[in-house]
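Support case: protoporphyrin IX containing FE complex. Customer-provided input:
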Amino acid sequence: MSVRARPTSPHLQIYRWTVTMAMSIIHRATGIANYGGMALLAIWLVAAAIGQDALTSVNYIYGSWFGQLVLFGFTWSLVHHMCGGLRHFVWDFAVMMEPGQRDKMAWATLGASVAITLLIWTVFVWMA
Ligand code: HEM
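Agent response - structure generated as follows:
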């Protein structure tokens, strides 16, 4: 019996990946990651309120290579999410919605988030 080619319901393996699709997913992922990062900030503030010993312990963990990696990732997540938020803000004015323009804005969001994150760490961590 011959099998008729039927229309297939789209899912992740069928969609051709586009930069706008990836940015949309990353925007939600970074939004979720920001909750975790804010928890880390809250822990640091609570430790500072408790006293020097607690703060030293938290600083020791956050200052380790793994802690620094997580904090770098959190910085990028926050900055990328903010850039994505500004992209949505631009769209609120019903501009930059054509396919080519959407792609350019998506790449610009990614580029700006990496550049701003590196700038923040250069000024406030590596050169401080
Ligand atoms: C710690 C701070 C933040 C957290 C925890 C956070 C969290 C989130 C999460 C979880 C979502 C996804 C909601 C969903 O898809 O249902 C989201 C969406 C969004 N966030 Fe944030 N966010 C933060 C900061 C910001 C900032 C600073 C901006 C703007 C500059 C922003 C703009 C947006 C926008 C516009 C959306 C909706 C995107 C869409 O409609 O697809 N967020 N946020």
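DSSP finds four helices and no strands in the chain.

Case will auto-close in a few days if no follow-up is received.
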